[in-house]
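Students often ask why inverse folding is considered easier than folding. One informal answer: many sequences map to the same fold, so there is more than one right answer. In these notes we will look at a single instance of the problem. The structure comes first.
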């Protein structure tokens, strides 16, 4: 694992991070698991070492929302993440979740279209409505209304699916703000993932 001075010189966040050697066993194990699963340590994990107790709770919640049981596919949840991140102009999340969306869909062109302007991507009515609602929640949550829910129901979303759209959107708004406000930069490895 890299030292604190190595991480500061990497300049992927504006924060001064603790020495990894000072992390407790649970936090250190989570970082090693992330490194083993992804092939490198995502900068979001490294930045979260400033509050390791929060990191442990956040990743459990994040995994439940993005990878847990849902009527939404993992790709649909990543689509929400990419579109919300585009709306918030969150570089870290656009690059990292764009890479995951390319991997899940096997379609780098669609993933790029969603990250630039989902309104021009070749989407069916159901998917477009899902993403329109995610953008509405992001831009003007006070304007959300019963008609939005009824429209999604008519397109085949269950109330549980609709809750998952809302919770996924809310989680990405949280992580976008965290990443942007800490100056977090994406790992270089993400840029080429899922492109060939």
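Output (designed amino acids):
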């Amino acid at each position: 694992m890299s030292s604190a001075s190595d991480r500061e010189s990497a300049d992927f966040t504006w924060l001064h991070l603790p020495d990894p050697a000072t992390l407790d066993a649970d936090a250190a194990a989570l970082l090693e698991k992330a490194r083993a699963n992804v092939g490198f340590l995502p900068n979001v994990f490294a930045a979260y070492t400033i509050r390791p107790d929060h990191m442990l709770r956040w990743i459990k919640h994040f995994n439940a929302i993005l990878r847990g049981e849902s009527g939404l596919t993992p790709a649909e949840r990543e689509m929400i993440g990419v579109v919300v991140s585009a709306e918030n102009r969150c570089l870290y999340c656009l690059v990292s979740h764009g890479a995951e969306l390319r991997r899940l869909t096997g379609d780098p062109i669609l993933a790029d279209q969603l990250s630039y302007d989902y309104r021009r991507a070749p989407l069916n009515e159901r998917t477009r409505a899902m993403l329109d609602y995610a953008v509405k929640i992001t831009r003007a949550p006070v304007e959300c209304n019963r008609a939005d829910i009824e429209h999604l129901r008519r397109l085949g979303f269950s109330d549980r699916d609709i809750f998952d759209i809302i919770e996924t959107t809310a989680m990405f708004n949280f992580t976008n703000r965290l990443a942007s406000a800490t100056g977090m930069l994406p790992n270089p490895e993400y840029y080429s993932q899922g492109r060939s």
